[in-house]
Amino acid sequence: MKHILLGLLILSISYNAVAKRMSCKNFKTQAQAQAYMERYAAYHLDADGDGEACECLPGGSSYGSSKCRK
């Protein structure tokens, strides 16, 4: 049982490490970044914390003002 839990812990850590390497410049559209953020919990793509990833990309923010980390 300990080996299974350790394996799951290692997988979850490495899974998040992959997500942290991605940035807005890795996507062509906001929709692609949004899907990635939701699938991999890559919330660092949401610079202003409003739930929208990479708002400066084509198809971006529905709020008018936005921040984007490129």
Automatic annotation (TrEMBL):
It comes from the Bacteria. It holds the Pfam family Excalibur. Keywords: Signal. Residues 20-55 form the Excalibur calcium-binding domain. The keyword Ion transport does not apply. Residues 1-19 form the signal peptide. This is Excalibur calcium-binding domain protein. It comes from Pasteurella canis. The lineage of its organism: Bacteria, Pseudomonadati, Pseudomonadota, Gammaproteobacteria, Pasteurellales.
